[in-house]
Amino acid sequence: MDFIEGLPNSNTRNSILVVVDHLTKYGHFLALMHPCTAKDVAFKYLNQVYKLYDMPDSIISDWDQIFAIQLTPYEALYGQPPPIHMPYLAGVSPAAVVDRSLQSREATRKLLMFCLKRAQGRMKHFTDKHRSERSFQEVIRKVGAVAYTLQFPPHSHIHPTFHVSQLKKHVKNHLPVVDAHGASPKEPIRIIDRRMVKKGSQAVTEVLVKWANSFPEDATWEPLTAFQTKFPHFQP
């Protein structure tokens, strides 16, 4: 559970309460008016989420300042901790249909948890290969651990807060060269990779090209035949 704040007003609302189910990734996006209280959030959660799914086993949040009382929305609303979910034990219900249904639900839940943890481990393994510590200067403020608010002109209509993955390090005197029309000429400097793709009924070779005066992430896939025609003297 988290908040998106500082949005332009829409029907007197300028914030969004985001609630995502950790298991199924199903999300709810609830409009709020900032500033709001823990009681406001609890009522919104009760009316939009609790009525559909009951109380979750746990709530993961960054403990926004509105939760200074260190209580979950359930505790703030009802004055007591939420009930603990107990897994169903086979044979507890005397009704055979109910017993089979609940056993099936528990089996499905265990399978989902297994697949979720396996997927999380796989995603973390591959993502960690591309992660690095980053910090930025000349920004207004840091929002959480992975976002920054930049200083834009007053008339700008772009939201100034960006995830760290959307930002690039500024390197002085490293601006791309442009022609008289403001366009940057593209000159290849290296072939990074090759691949075969299907276009229509034919297999076509494409090459991943690193361009001069550009960042590594700006490399593009180009058809090999068209690339050789445009740059006949290029030697990879």
Overview in brief:
With 236 residues, the chain is an alpha+beta fold. The protein has helices spanning 38-53, 73-78, 96-128, 224-230; strands spanning 2-4, 15-20, 27-32, 141-143, 147-149, 161-163, 188-199, 202-211, 220-223.
How does this structure look, described?
The chain is an alpha+beta fold and 236 residues long. The protein folds into 4 domains: 2-85, Nucleotidyltransferase, domain 5, CATH 3.30.420.10; 93-131; 133-170, no CATH class; 188-230. It is 26% helix and 21% strand. The protein contains 4 helices and 9 strands. The chain has helices at residues 38-53, 73-78, 96-128, 224-230, and strands spanning 2-4, 15-20, 27-32, 141-143, 147-149, 161-163, 188-199, 202-211, 220-223. Strands 1-2-3 form a 3-stranded antiparallel beta sheet, covered by helices on one side. Strands 4-5-6 form a 3-stranded antiparallel beta sheet, with no helix packed on it. The longest helix is centred in the middle third of the chain and has 33 residues, at 96-128. The radius of gyration is 26 Å and the shape is flat.
What is the fold's blueprint, element by element?
Elements: E1 2-4, E2 15-20, E3 27-32, H1 38-53, H2 73-78, H3 96-128, E4 141-143, E5 147-149, E6 161-163, E7 188-199, E8 202-211, E9 220-223, H4 224-230
Antiparallel strand pairs: 1-2, 2-3, 4-5, 5-6, 7-8, 8-9
Q: Which value, in Å, is the CA radius of gyration? A: 26 Å
CATH architecture of the largest domain: 2-Layer Sandwich
Shape: flat
Distance between the termini: 50 Å
Most strands sheet: 3 strands, antiparallel
Per CATH, what is the topology of the largest domain? Answer: Nucleotidyltransferase, domain 5
The amount of helix comes to: 25-40%
The CATH class label of the largest domain is Alpha Beta
